[in-house]
Amino acid sequence: MRYCNTLIAVKDMERSLQFYKNLFNQEIVVDLGWCKTLTCGLTLQEHFDEVAGFQPDTMKYRSNTMELYFETEDFEEFISLLRKYPDVELLHEPKTFPWLQRGVRIFDPNGHLIEISESMYSVAQRQFKQGKSVEETAELIMHPLNVVQEWYKEYQSHR
Description:
By secondary structure, this protein is of the alpha/beta class. It folds into two domains: 7-118, Roll (2,3-Dihydroxybiphenyl 1,2-Dioxygenase, domain 1); 121-157. The protein is 36% helix and 25% strand. It has six helices and eight strands, in the order βαβββαβαβββααα. It has helices at residues 13-24, 48-52, 75-83, 120-129, 134-141, 145-157; strands at residues 7-9, 28-31, 35-38, 43-45, 67-72, 90-96, 102-107, 113-118. It has a four-stranded mixed β-sheet, with helices on one face. β3 (35-38) and β4 form a beta hairpin. α4 (120-129) packs across α5 (134-141) and α5 crosses α6 (145-157).
């Protein structure tokens, strides 16, 4: 058995598509009309209540029990893009988490929570550029030493 993708219910397919295209550069790779899969593997589906057999009034579009997670290598560029869409609701302003990763959480047009953060590799790179050792970096970013060692090798090979 294998995991295939994540499907989220949407009320307005076109509005949802524009949101994911504009902010996340997603394109449609499978188009069934009422059900569309995007480049990243996320599937958007209208009329999910009918397909799954739920009563329409039981659909909870803002359950706050899960989030979609995207990473970027250029967090500032994403924040600049996000600022061009003032109608996008933020859960919180961009912030730095205790493990030094910068991130922001927003809601899509259907109330699904999305976190967009810089990659942890980027966080580690920033520490290396500041002269931090692999051990210091692993402790600061709260990641296993062996992972940070691999990132340091990659960082060294691109210098």
